[in-house]
Amino acid sequence: MTITHHVRVHRSDENLAREGQLAWQIAEVAADPVAVEAAVVDMIINRVIDNASVAAASLTRRPVSAARQQALDHAVSVSGGGSTVFGCANERRTSPEWAAWANGVAVRELDYHDTFLAAEYSHPGDNIPPILAVAQHVGADGAALVRGIATGYEIQMDLVRAISLHKHKIDHVAHLGPSAAAGIGTLLGLPAETIYQAVGQALHTTTATRQSRKGEISTWKAHAPAFAGKMAVEAVDRAMRGETSPSPIYEGEDGVIAWMLDGKDASYDVPLPGPGEPKRAILDSYTKEHSAEYQAQAWIDLARKLGAERPELRDPANIATIVLHTSHHTHYVIGSGANDPQKYDPTASRETLDHSIPYIFAVALQDGAWHHVDSYLPERAARPDTVELWHKITTAEDAEWTRRYHSEDPDEKAFGGRVEITLADGSTIVDEIAVADAHPLGARPFAREDYIRKFRLLAEPVLTPEEIERFLALAQRLPELSADEVGQLNIVARPGVLASAPAPKGLF
User: Fold this and answer.
1) Domain MmgE/PrpD N-terminal spans what residues (predicted)?
2) What domains can you pick out in the chain, each with its CATH number?
3) Burial class (CB in 10 A: 0-12, 13-18, 19+), 193
4) What is the pTM of this model?
């Protein structure tokens, strides 16, 4: 059964026992050798395929190329076999922390993989690159890899359920560092003491401000989770050598909660699996059908439906205003409530546009579709009729949609809202959507065949047909894979694909 851990700030003279600390409780969950349930294994396979899909689609993008080049400029560390880098031949290896870095950037670059939203936001699939990199380096088998990934998802999502970071402008990857460290600990079968020290360091080194997702959003947006994964690998290495970390990292009077979150009088209730309880959190997460911030998923589906049903809505001359009544998060983070002029700027970066729901709704309404490349092209963003329509779209917080966003009832939890379109003639059109079509409760919930179709769509331009089939066959046998086969769990680009990508030079 789930155990709720009450977490508060403690004065130094209270001498909070290690067993009472959240980092220790996380470590105990990670060290619990409980079996992974079949449904969880099945979903882990789906998400390994999903990560490879979006990584394939981003192989030639500059941030991914830069991270890949950084990784390839580092040799394999001496105590293992090294780790593969997305796109490169399986024989080309690098040190695991650098593989976690390069592959983490590839997975996150297009903002196109899985999501979980509660008190905080997260892309729990970000746990997979560092855990897989370590598995390859040490020669772990598929069963151990599955156990590690189950822990990574569990810990990050449990922290996300309880502790808001964005309220204090701390980036959400502060929950990822501890979860990836815990997942690596499970993978390696480390004792709770070692995992505890790794969790503390991983948290300490991955707390940063949310400016990475504000204003003119930079390429660091994709690098931030990769950095957290890299820090998790390094934290585990250090802890395995017997070194200690700041403690109590969450509860200390100069710790994360006291000075970065809700302050010295704060407390949180964090749900974690009890001893012997299977780690099921991944089943509550959901992936993306569209390459855009998760709160945009349902709005894309509604916009393309409205555009198909009422083609006249695509012409800005027919529109007076469009107001999207939605949750606090959607309004203030990707909506007009952010007060970011860049969200209405046709020359804004791709990273900014995929965090602009006015832009996304306008393009999906006009095109009746969403494409991970074409929908963000500078010429698409600058199209005059799109710019005119885009500037007529605003968002407004609606208390009921905010309540549903935060609901703990999965049947009620919603990430959409209500659109009110006022036409030029004064008439109105009102429609609403609660969840994306691909959501488990949506019109077309994603299943294995959808993950495979997404992989084929995104991989076909850059992988050979033989490579596509090889990877899919391997991934779908994940829990049965030998250590050698785990070492081949990679996507290898067609000849010439990586040669056509940018190859920026740096210090290394």
Assistant:
1) 21-268
2) 21-247 (1.10.4100.10), 294-433 (3.30.1330.120)
3) middle
4) 0.90
